[in-house]
Design goal:
This protein is an alpha+beta fold. It has 2 domains: 168 residues, Beta-clip-like (Beta Complex); 141 residues, Serine Threonine Protein Phosphatase 5, Tetratricopeptide repeat, CATH 1.25.40. Strand 9 and strand 10 form a beta hairpin. Helix 5 packs antiparallel against helix 7, helix 7 runs antiparallel to helix 8 and helix 9 packs antiparallel against helix 10.
């Protein structure tokens, strides 16, 4: 069973059995594993000090002033102790711009935390951050085994090549990324950039609803290709695997294939558990889809060409043949 981690729901940051807050060379403060942390462990969860919308520095400063005044004194100190990569006239806005994490994918609001905002970036992170809308807190989960003494990291970037990521990180957060990926030699970095461009291209193709309707086998094949590139670039445990498996689920369920959809939903569920924990709303959604794939609103919405029932998941195939069946290879 994964260690439940630390519940930091108060303004005081409790001592953690999993990590220490230390000075990290070239990065300022960061979180460093105190002990070995297994994959899937919830390292930390924390409620925000404040939440702010994305707006101009001048308007953000005006919006923040009453919110900061309303904080308790210890919370004000925690906020003011956070790093500011954009010093100047709008100091509060600079702290928020440097530290805020989005409250969910594509959110227009961001939250500032006393401890989670100390977790530094890596383009090859070992942890994943997730906003739990229902509980109103952020969690950090280990997406791979983290050794004692290793820094705990998350990804701030939105993908793309190293040049794209570094430019975006510089503009949004004010630092030059020198993570292990961005510091690779030229041949290795070019190979990584090529894989990340492949990831983007495949993800775009999979997300095309017209292609999913007219050429579902090709869309599913792209999911399988993406799985291989993701494994080569990142290894297992990335949160993007959950989305990949959910995409494969949606392709199958839209064409009435409950058997394969059940397997993909289970894999998406397990990936969510690693990255977000059992209590995540998205984890629970995938658990429901695993138990009742026909309950998805788009069940059979495109065709009945692949119609199967849950009971038709094969039980006697070996691992290799099962994967061939799952991805409809050789058909």
């Amino acid at each position: 069973m994964a260690n439940p981690g630390v519940d930091a729901t108060s303004s005081q940051v409790p001592e953690s059995p999993l990590f220490d807050i230390k000075q990290v060379p070239g990065k300022g403060k960061g979180l460093v594993a105190r002990i070995d942390i297994p994959t899937g462990t919830r390292i930390f969860r924390e409620k925000p000090l404040l939440i702010a919308r994305n707006m101009s520095p001048h308007m953000l400063q005006k919006d923040l002033e009453p919110k900061i005044k309303a904080l308790a004194k210890d919370q004000q100190r925690q906020f003011l102790c956070l790093h500011n990569n954009f010093p100047g006239q709008y100091a509060f806005a600079g702290i928020v711009k440097t530290n805020a994490l989005p409250c969910g994918s594509g959110a227009m609001v961001g939250a500032v935390y006393p401890t989670i905002c100390l977790v530094n970036h890596s383009c090859m992170p070992n942890s994943h951050t997730n906003w739990n809308e229902d509980a109103g807190h952020e969690t950090i989960h280990a997406t791979r085994f983290i050794k004692a003494g290793e820094e705990i990291t998350i990804a701030y970037d939105k993908g793309g090549t190293s040049d794209t990521r570094r430019a975006s990180l510089k503009q949004s957060f004010g630092f030059d990324c020198d993570c292990p990926v961005c510091s690779l030699g030229i041949p290795e970095l070019q190979a990584s950039d090529t894989r990340r461009l492949q990831i983007q291209a495949l993800d775009d193709a999979i997300g095309d609803p017209f292609r999913m309707r007219s050429s579902p086998a090709a869309s599913l094949a792209d999911c399988h290709s993406l799985l291989g590139v993701l494994d080569e670039e990142y290894g297992t445990g990335r949160a993007v695997l959950a989305r990949l498996y959910y995409d494969a689920f949606q392709i199958c369920i839209a064409h009435s294939d409950q058997a394969r959809a059940t397997v993909f939903a289970e894999r998406a569920y397990k990936s969510r558990v690693v990255c977000e924990g059992e209590g995540s709303p998205l984890t629970q959604k995938m658990k429901r889809m695993m138990e009742n794939p026909a309950g998805h609103p788009n069940f059979g919405g495109y065709s009945k060409n692949w119609k199967t029932s849950k009971s038709q998941v094969p039980k006697s195939l070996d691992a290799v043949d099962f994967e061939k069946w799952l991805w409809r290879q050789g058909r």
